[in-house]
Specification:
Blueprint (H helix, E strand, L loop, with lengths): L1 E5 L3 E7 L13 E7 L1 H11 L4 E7 L1 H14 L3 E5 L5 E8 L2 E6 L7 H12 L7 E5 L10 H11 L3 E5 L2 H9 L4 E2 L3 H8 L4 H10 L4 E5 L5 E5 L2 E6 L11 H14 L4 H17 L8 H10 L1 E4 L5
Parallel strand pairs: 1-4, 1-8, 2-6, 4-5, 8-9, 9-10, 10-11
Antiparallel strand pairs: 2-3, 6-7, 11-12, 12-13, 13-14
Helix pairs in contact: 1-8, 4-5, 6-7, 8-9, 9-10
Length: 306
Amino acid sequence: MIVTITPNAAVDTTYTVPALVPNSSHRVSTVHSRAGGKGVNVARVLTGQGVSTLAVAFAGGAAGAELRTDLTASGIAFDLFPVAGQTRRTVSIVAEGDATVFNEPGPLITAAEWASFRRHLGGLLADADVVVLSGSLPPGLAADAYAELVGLARANGCRTVLDTTGDPLLAGAAAGADVVKPNAVELREATGESDPCTAAEALRATGAGTVVASLGADGLLAVGEHGRWLARPDRVVHGNPTGAGDALVAALATGLAADHPWPYLLREAVAWSAAAVAAPLAGDLDTDALHELRVGVTLEELRCHS
């Protein structure tokens, strides 16, 4: 089983408009609202692909109740930890193949709530193979919060996939996360290195097992004990890129849980990520596109220098 942990879950609303024009009003063609946050999106992808998963998140207030209602309706197994604060809301505006996202900060998590959550989580990991740690940290949590969860997962015999940014990314990598998944900008900001391969080597040197950096339309770069690889799709996919990184993480977690070899795992990750762009909402895959994209992924072994 794969457990996804989303400290800063959200109710996500997606507006689709023909074009996004500053300082003007817009006529919205479609509106969708659903449970979200990066780890919840990962759990949605995994559930859609028939992978056993449990979505774990904080939830509070009216938006927290909406989160529970949508997860139930979507058939996603979940464990929502109640907090006094209000679950956040996000708005994504999709126009001309790009997404503009507005993220609220999330609820304030108290020290007592965090300690109680850690104790509660320990009881959920007995049957888990992989733990996915995704997204921003809500107010009240220190930058080493994910590092603490990496240690808890390891103590329960679970491997970890970490998808976050900044100091939480660096702390989680130093704690020995098995896989960390920054995008190109996050990788550069975390390491100060402009070359993705050099930056991935530098981040891995802090303690992470494998660094998998998403490079957008250029595919993904993986640096680890298995080697250095660049995996690319054979075409650019247009649509909603909001959930592409979450689909990539879902594929990585699935591959780790199944002990797939890295070349196969990376091909799947590229295909799942591109198939997510082809789907209208984060957390979904276009299954027809997925089958076509798998065939076209190219894989190149690289030589990187630390």
